[in-house]
Amino acid sequence: MKVPVMEIFGPTIQGEGMVIGQKTMFVRTGGCDYSCSWCDSRFTWDGSTRSNLMQVADIVSELERIGGERFSHVTISGGNPALHKGIDELIEICHQKGWKVAIETQGSIWQEWMKKIDDVTVSPKPPSSKMETNYDKLDHYMEQLEDRNVSLKVVVFNDADFDYAELIHKRYPFVPFYLQIGNEEVSSTDDASLVSSLLKRYEWLIEKATQSVIMNDAKVLPQLHTLIWGNKRGV
Ligand SMILES: C[S@@+](CC[C@H](N)C(=O)[O-])C[C@H]1O[C@@H](n2cnc3c(N)ncnc32)[C@H](O)[C@@H]1O
Ligand SMILES: Nc1nc2[nH]cc(C(=O)O)c2c(=O)[nH]1
Ligand code: SF4
Ligand SMILES: [Mg+2]
């Protein structure tokens, strides 16, 4: 089957969430059913960049061509990778090769192949994104992925987002929960000023989490790759 691909890159480190620091390759698919106001990957859905409709076998060849034998973990992100049926075959081949597979999705579209993923990150969107959470769909996700290696990650830009994050964590109390700082300057090329404002926001979010009883078992993270490479694409 074919999958629309925006970019394949790595090895790099996973900069976010449940396996932060993990050495991994990335496959970024095209298209999204959301359009978050602050999306740092707009080029996957805003029409500015064309995707490459690739056979799964060719995606795997490309991973091996650029990664050689220097990886054993593949992260599928987007856009929303859950739009694409062909991911099922990609997971199968990755597993045959002995690679683990992670996914980043917002939890709006269910696919049965989601159950085969080794690390699932579901990232529902807070009010600042201007997107509306469909709780029926999110409940279905969490029910289906019960007993699997799943986590929730909410990006926080302001107090209303933090309240939303508390609501999500309370709704699914047994799912490992991650708070992530929001990057407000996704087109900045001034790395020094970007990093300094991101670190200030990180301190702010840590302070919010330490004051919240609901967040007693939450993990508070920055986007590590942004601290290292700024807004550079393909890292
Ligand atoms: C680009 S999205 C792709 C996967 C999927 N569409 C999703 O949103 O989960 C990957 C991750 O980046 C996060 N993200 C996007 N823009 C961001 C920003 N400006 N600051 C911080 N995190 C951001 C998303 O919330 C998501 O967790
Ligand atoms: N290093 C690195 N880590 C990431 N974690 C999530 C990413 C994404 O865009 O989905 C991402 C990314 O683009 N790069
Ligand atoms: S759901 Fe993810 S890829 Fe889609 S617009 Fe939001 S952050 Fe961007
Ligand atoms: Mg990203």
What do these coordinates show?
- The structure is a single chain.
- With 235 residues, the chain is an alpha/beta fold.
- Helix content is 30%, strand content 23%.
- The protein has helices at residues 56-67, 87-96, 135-144, 159-171, 191-210, 224-229; strands spanning 2-13, 23-29, 52-55, 73-77, 100-105, 119-122, 150-156, 177-181, 219-221.
- The chain has a nine-stranded mixed sheet.
- α3 links the parallel β6 (119-122) and β7 (150-156).
- The model has no long low-confidence stretch (mean pLDDT 98).
- S-adenosylmethionine is lined by residues 32, 38-41, 77-80, 104-106, 123, 153, 155, 180, 182-183, 186, 223.
- It catalyses: 6-carboxy-5,6,7,8-tetrahydropterin + H(+) = 7-carboxy-7-carbaguanine + NH4(+).
- Mg(2+) binds at residue 41.
- Its cofactor is Mg(2+); S-adenosyl-L-methionine; [4Fe-4S] cluster.
- Belongs to the radical SAM superfamily. 7-carboxy-7-deazaguanine synthase family.
What descriptive keywords fit this protein?
rSAM_sf, binds S-adenosylmethionine, binds ligand 2KA, 6 helices, alpha/beta, iron, binds iron/sulfur cluster, binds magnesium ion, 30% helix, rSAM, 9 strands, lyase activity, 235 residues, 7-carboxy-7-deazaguanine synthase
- What series of H and E elements makes up the topology? EEEHEHEEHEHEHEH
Which whole number gives the mean pLDDT?
98
In terms of per-residue confidence, which ranges show pLDDT below 50 for 5 or more consecutive residues?
A: none
The total beta strand count reads 9
Output the radius of gyration.
17 Å
Cofactors, ions, other ligands:
S-adenosylmethionine, ligand 2KA, iron/sulfur cluster, magnesium ion
Q: For the largest beta sheet, what order do the strands appear in spatially?
A: 3-1-2-4-5-6-7-8-9
The percent of residues in helical segments reads 25-40%
Cα distance spanning the termini: 27 Å
Count of helical stretches: 6
Identify the overall geometry: globular
Question: Could you tell me the strand content as a percent range?
Answer: 15-25%
Structural class: alpha/beta
Domain Radical SAM core: 19-231
Cofactor: Mg(2+); S-adenosyl-L-methionine; [4Fe-4S] cluster
Organism: Halalkalibacter alkalisediminis
Keywords: 4Fe-4S, Iron, Iron-sulfur, Lyase, Magnesium, Metal-binding, Queuosine biosynthesis, S-adenosyl-L-methionine
